[in-house]
Design a protein that fits this description.
Layout: E1 2-4, H1 10-17, E2 22-26, H2 29-41, E3 48-52, E4 65-68, H3 72-83, E5 90-94, E6 105-108, E7 117-122, E8 129-132, E9 138-144, E10 147-153, E11 160-167, E12 170-174, E13 178-185, E14 188-195, E15 204-210
C-alpha cells in the first residue's frame, strides 16, 4: 500500500496493522519523523516505511494499492503514472476523484461529519486497438480509462457499435444484442458470449486476438 502525501502516516499505519506492507511519501520532514514514531509506537515499523520526498517524483510502480487523499490538481498530475500501473492495481480515494476518470465504486461513510466519500478506481488493462475472432469478426475499440467504445463487424458484414468497460484485466463488451465477458491474457481475450438479458448458460466460447 502506497500513500502519496501521507501526512502523519495514518493510512499506511492502518494498512500495516492489517498485515500489509506500506510506504508513505511525504515532503515535510517533520511529518515523516512523526509517522515513524507513530509506526514504532503501534508496533508496525517493520511493515510501515516512510520517506521524505516529492510525491510527483516518487517511484510507486510496485504498489498493489494506493490510498490517496489529494486535491484534484495533484491527482491530475499523477493520473498518467497511476493509469500506467499494472492492471488490477486498486486506487482508494478520499473525497476527491481523479479528474475525467469515473470511479468503479463509490460510497459514503455513515455517521461521518467530513471527508466522508470513498471511491475505488481499479487500473484497467490497455486494450484499445483492433481484435479478431477465429471466424473473422473484428472489434475495433477505443478506451477512456476503464470505459470502452467502438464497433464490431462480422466478416463481410456491416459494423455495429459496441460499448463496454474494464475492471483490471476483465473485459465486458455489448452491442445491445450480445454481451461478451472475458479476461485479457497477453495478446488474447478469452471469454464467453451470450444474448443480452438472456438465460445464463454455457454460452459461446470466443477468443479475441489482438491485430493491432
Amino acid at each position: 500500500v502506497v500513500d502519496l502525501g501521507c501526512g502523519d502516516g495514518r493510512n499506511v499505519i492502518a494498512a500495516a496493522k492489517l498485515g500489509a506492507r506500506g510506504l508513505g511519501v511525504e515532503y515535510n520532514p517533520d511529518m515523516v519523523a512523526l509517522s515513524k514514531r507513530i509506526a514504532a509506537k503501534e508496533g508496525v515499523a517493520e511493515r510501515a516505511q516512510f520517506v521524505q520526498g516529492d510525491m510527483y517524483e516518487a517511484d510507486f510502480s510496485k504498489a498493489t494499492a494506493l490510498a490517496l487523499f489529494l486535491l484534484p490538481s495533484n491527482l491530475t498530475t499523477l493520473r498518467d503514472k497511476i493509469f500506467n500501473l499494472p492492471a488490477g492495481t486498486r486506487v482508494v480515494l478520499n473525497t476527491f476523484s481523479i479528474p475525467d476518470w469515473t470511479p468503479d465504486e463509490q460510497t459514503t461513510v455513515e455517521n461521518c461529519t467530513q471527508w466522508c466519500t470513498v471511491m475505488l478506481n481499479i487500473v484497467p488493462a490497455k486494450i484499445a486497438g483492433t481484435w479478431r475472432t477465429a471466424d473473422g469478426t473484428e472489434f475495433t475499440l477505443t478506451q477512456q480509462f476503464q470505459m470502452l467504445t467502438g464497433s464490431t463487424r462480422a466478416a463481410n458484414g456491416q459494423p455495429t457499435s459496441v460499448t463496454g468497460r474494464l475492471r483490471g484485466n476483465d473485459v465486458m463488451l455489448s452491442n445491445g444484442k450480445q454481451e461478451f465477458n472475458g479476461r485479457l491474457k497477453g495478446n488474447v481475450i478469452e471469454g464467453t458470449q451470450r444474448p443480452t438479458g438472456g438465460a445464463t448458460g454455457a454460452g459461446q466460447q470466443i477468443t479475441l486476438t489482438r491485430v493491432k
